[in-house]
Amino acid sequence: MAWVILVVSGAMEAVWATALGKSEGFSKLGPSVVFVIGCALSMFGLAVAMKSLPVGTAYAVWVGIGAVLTVAYAMATGDEPVSIAKIVLLLGIIGCVIGLKVLH
Predict the structure, then answer these.
(1) Can you tell me the distance from the alpha carbon of 100 to that of 20, in angstroms, rounded to the nearest whole number?
(2) Is the pTM of this model over 0.70?
């Protein structure tokens, strides 16, 4: 169950990171509220997962999932340019996250 919570909290990291960018320095209320809620849920999930997973592994997986989903969302919405190199590098991060799960 810790891995499921970790994956969900990694996805919430992408939510708060995206909301932070859209908040324009916390000057927009909607994205600012999403940021606060997303950040709280993400951190809570990470903390729960760390009860039964090693800190280093949990943190690396959490960051990897959040980073990949944040960039993928930005590319899908046109906020960031898409390139083969970026896709290959993101797949590398995904491979490393899977590797950490397999090794655990």
Answers:
(1) 28
(2) yes
Which residues have C-beta within 8 Å of that of residue 104, sequence separation ≥ 6?
A: 53, 54, 57
**Measured CA distances, 70 to 21, 53, 76 (Å):** 11, 24, 10
pLDDT along the chain (104 residues), means of 10: 97 97 97 98 98 96 97 97 97 95 90
Residue type, 35: F
If one counts every other C-beta atom within 10 angstroms of the C-beta of residue 104, the result is 12
CB contact set of 51 (below 8 Å; sequence gap of 6+): 2
Cα separation, 49 vs 103, in Å, equals 16
